[in-house]
Amino acid sequence: MDQIAASHITLPDLLIWGVAIFLFFRLRTLPPNSATCRLVAALCGCMVVAIVAVILLADNLSSIGVMELAMIAIWLCIGLSRWNDARSKSTLASDLL
């Protein structure tokens, strides 16, 4: 954990950011009501819970590391919120037809 948000880019940084960016953009590109998109949304939720657990339980995590993880969790929450809005709009539109 002491390598997260170090002065140079490390493998944990690349893995965390890579997975978060992949999940965020897959939520935006997949059809909102598809099973795959629901699975991606569940993975986003699990990643947010894992990030909160790491922030609370890590002993030697720097303040910059906490800020980086919190920023990732916020962006995943924003992605989940947008996905939920798109899902409710598509469900509402299909109910009206």
How does this structure look, described?
With 97 residues, the protein is mostly helical. It is built from three helices and no strands. Helix 1 packs antiparallel against helix 2 and helix 2 packs antiparallel against helix 3 (63-96). The termini are far apart. The model has no long low-confidence stretch (mean pLDDT 84).
The shape, in one word, is: elongated
Low-confidence stretches: none
Radius of gyration of CA atoms, rounded to a whole number: 16 Å
Helix-strand sequence: HHH
**How far apart are the termini?**
51 Å
Compact description:
By secondary structure, the chain is mainly alpha-helical.
Question: What keyword list fits this structure?
Answer:
97 residues, mainly alpha, 3 helices, elongated
Furnish the topology, listing elements before pairings.
Elements (H helix, E strand, L loop, with lengths): L10 H19 L5 H23 L5 H34 L1
